[in-house]
Amino acid sequence: MNTILEKQVLSDVTKLMVVEAPQVARKAKAGQFIIVLMHDQGERIPLTIADYDGAAGTITIIFQEVGKSTIQMGAMKVGDSFRDIVGPLGHPTEIENYGEIICVGGGVGIAPVYPIARALKEAGNHVISIIGARTKDLLLWEDKMRAVSDELIVTTDDGSHGRKDLVTVPLKEILDSRPGKIKKIWAIGPAIMMKFVAGTTKPYRVPTVVSLNTIMIDGTGMCGGCRVVLEDGAQFVCVDGPEFDAHKVDWNNLLSRLSFYRPEEQLAVERHKDHECKLDRAIANGVR
Question: Which pLDDT value is given to residue 263?
Fold first, then answer.
């Protein structure tokens, strides 16, 4: 059992939890992920590790409530426990002293890009970070990103904070103004954002790495659910990733696969909400 030691509500749909997981925390590295199981009948949920403290034996996870399972997880409280946490899984980020690099984080993807930016800064890189969200309320960890970055650019789609731009706009500006100086780029966020980051950087031939969070079931490569199509064939995110060359990903295939179970996911959410409403009504009517 893995106990929740701290919980923060970052927005209406975004939650942060610090969880007791000493074995994972001792071995975790930037870029790796875990699979959490709330209870015996729960769904296996893959989450990139947002932070880890080996000495304290804790990991930090940040997630958005987008489906039935993450809604249920968001309702968990300090003192509650996960049935299981498996990890760290996946290959860690390749950390070297590259020179000038860029880290791009979009929405909840800012959280997993943070330990990568921190590790790259500690390795001696000049870290330029670009973080963005649809609105100020969905922007997170600006102060933490600033602390591990030599330069930080903040954008929001609606202009409620920072620049009113998509993250690809300042990204292109930097590539145009510093030809040949940017050695590598990391991008984590919604799949559509990473697709456009890949499209922005490809003409400049700057190596670009994305972290993919696909449909995942067993996390061992056995089920094939997390298959991602690359230029040189298919690979599995859980064992071959989660990081891949952004310029080799078949983004149309990935986006199509991510939406494959959307009708079932929406139905599950609707049934979950309806169940809660009936329960609330019964309690209000004095039914025990």
Answer: 54
